[in-house]
Amino acid sequence: MNGHLRILLLILCSFSFLSALYAQEEEEWSSALDSARAAEDNKEDTVIYTARYVRYTTLAMMKRGTFTYQIDTLHKNLQYYNMQNQPRNPSINLGSYGLATRDLLFIPDKTIGFQTGFRSLERYVYQPDSIKYYRARAPFSELYNVGFFFDDQIIRAKVTQNINPQLNIGGEFHAARADGYYTNQRYNDVKAAVFSWYESPNRRYNLLTNAVFNRLIATENGSITNDSVFTDGETRASNEESTRLRAARDERPRHTWRDNSFFLRQSLFVGRLDTIHAGEPEQQLLPTNSMSHSFSLRAHDFQFYKNEEDANDAFPVGESVLTQDTTRLTTITNDFNYSFYLRGKSLAFVKNEVKLDLGYQHNMYWYRDRGYNTSSQNNILKAGIGYRFSDRVSITGDFNQIVQGNNFGDYLYEAKANILLSKTIGRIVLGAYTQNKSPEQLFQRVNYTYHQWAHDFDKTKTTNLSFAYENAKLGFTGKAEYFLIANHLYFKEVDNDNYDPRLFRVIEPAQLGSNINLLKISVGQNFTLGKFHLDNYAVYQKSDYNDVLAIPELYTWHSFYFNSQLYKVVDFNLGFDVRFNTPFRTPSYAINIGQFYNDNDNAGIEFSTYPILDVWTTATIRRANIFLSYNFVNQYVWPTGYYTVRRYPMNNANLRIGIAWKFYD
Questions:
Q1: pTM reported for the whole predicted model
Q2: Burial grade of 129 (CB within 10 A; 0-12, 13-18, 19 or more)
Q3: Counting Cβ atoms within 10 Å, is residue 362 exposed (0-12), middle (13-18) or buried (19+)?
Q4: Where do the H-state alpha helices sit in 50-187?
Q5: What's phi and psi for 517, nearest 5 deg?
Q6: What is the DSSP string of 134-150?
Q7: For residue 436, is pLDDT > 60?
Q8: At what angle do helices 2-21 and 23-41 cross, to 10 degrees?
Q9: Which of 7, 47, 608, 641 counts the most CB atoms within 10 A of its CB?
Q10: Is the peptide bond before 639 cis (omega within 30 degrees of 0)?
Q11: d(C-alpha 131, C-alpha 404), whole Å
């Protein structure tokens, strides 16, 4: 580990002094480079493809019309490869890449209808809605790699090409492997997707298709047995610490998720088509009438496997050696939508635009776990209205209601007003929604090896009001949110006043009888002084039930970095991040069902929290983006380690290197 630190310091020093060492050569290099560029630009009959001509759209964008965005070629934020440690969406987790994860901040789930309740590996699932559909004049490919000779290995590859001006096809392959620092922390996944986008010559018909395949395997070690690993004064390698589960190779205890899907969407524009930036890559087509049909078939498979005796009390009391708890869910969805837009015919047609959306969605579900099979359906009516006074002011409302089926009575009603005061003064966004949601299946019924229950909980109702202010010129964003939550559902350890060992680690779902009032304030402020930048983000969340929600009162993140260029060719950032959250009642983790829960032993106990420091650099060299980061570098000073989940130490200090190439000519 000390060797890695020396490598990092050497590279950082190289960035710091490289300009000074070669200052005398810079003028000569720049002149030669300018001459070469001029000769290239003066060539005749040469087509030069740039990133401007490689563009993509998404499902959400296609619901509003036909328009595309240019691919991102910047290196900023490249170092945030780990989905567990996103600056504005941090998590608590089991301490290694890919293992069970839960949001640190309060982020409600704004979905309705039937859901299983499995979420511990959700951040790593490649969702069909995340697919990008491309339009590229030349073949476009991308290769991304993190880790190289280190423990984490993350590989992503993408290739896409227009067969003709109307049809684009492509594919992606993602693979990851992380061995972790303690025994049985291995995670690996394989994810793949194929996709296509067809647009008719008259640009009125669009066909989007994709097939996505996920297989995620997260090994479970039941936590380490030493609860004083950071305070006992002894220094030893992490892989020498004893863990509660130790079976190896094919017998290692693990969660396996499979999530495979097929999606097809057809849309047809009828009536007048309005065009912005006609003939340019940025061209937008806005219909006056749009009809669409979407079909999806999705199969989920969740399995927990164990084949060893529970000698170290990782599970509730039981005699099971072999455990194979499996849950399967298959969903077929048909979604029909019609959209109507009323706007003027002048060049200012974006003003005084009225929008009306009508939709009907039918979902069929087939659910199976140990000894239990069921099928159900939901019929959902959807509507949306909107009015755009100008390009500065717009108001929208969306309504989703389950009118028949297993989750009858679920609804989500949402309204938003977007007001741009001016580019100097900034933008205000007002929002509100109310949601009535059925309990997820894991709260209602479980029949697994170590846990069994059947309940009939009430629906959870959430009401939200929000006020947001944004000023891009000042680099400021701020949002205040108020939540009123009735019938909140969570998992807890069963009451055990007599400390009966037979009830240790036995959990059950619970529904809070009182309403939760939660205030959440998020503030972001970025400062720039010459080539120096300081980005800041802080979240304050307060309620009378922070312990039940298992969330901290305050979270902050700060990033200080220096931006410059070498020889006008290499653009780089060099800096460090610090993140911190106040102590809170950290949850425990139930292994066999993959759920975080509030335990009895941890009542009133809050683990100490510490600032976590990461040092990093990112750079762009031609079409390659590179990052180098040393994470939790302050472990060599203070503290020696920390927790976010009870008994599961977080990762040690680690060095990571990543590179992303884009090819489009």
A1: 0.89
A2: exposed
A3: middle
A4: 59-62
A5: -105, 120
A6: EEESS-EEEEEEE-TTS
A7: yes
A8: 80
A9: 641
A10: yes
A11: 31
DSSP states of 463-489: EEEEEEEEETTTTEEEEEEEEEEES-E
Structure tokens at 204: 């009125």
HSE of 251, CA atoms in CB hemisphere, 13 A: 9
Question: For the chain, what's the residue count?
Answer: 665
First to last CA, the chain: 41
The token duo for 455 is 């309940």
Q: Residues near 202 by Cβ (< 8 Å), separated by ≥ 6?
A: none
Domains identified in the chain and CATH numbers: 2-21+53-663 (2.40.170.20)
Amino acid at 249: R
Q: HSE (CB half, 13 Å, CA atoms) of 171?
A: 5
Torsion angle, CA of 108/327/253/551, rounded to 10 degrees?
10
CA distance 201 to 68: 17
Q: Which two tokens stand for residue 69?
A: 């965005």
> What kind and span of H or E run contains 549?
helix 546-549
In 496-653, beta strands by DSSP E: 507-511, 516-529, 532-543, 554-566, 570-581, 588-590, 595-597, 612-621, 624-631, 643-645, 648-649
For range 340-361, the mean pLDDT: 82
pLDDT digits (tens, 9 = 90+) for 496-549: 988 899 999 999 999 999 999 999 999 999 999 999 999 999 999 999 999 999
Mean pLDDT value of segment 275-297:
92
* pLDDT value, residue 150: 62
Look-up: residue for tokens 């280190």? Answer: 150
Asked if 522 contacts 547 with a C-beta cutoff of 8 angstroms, the reply is no
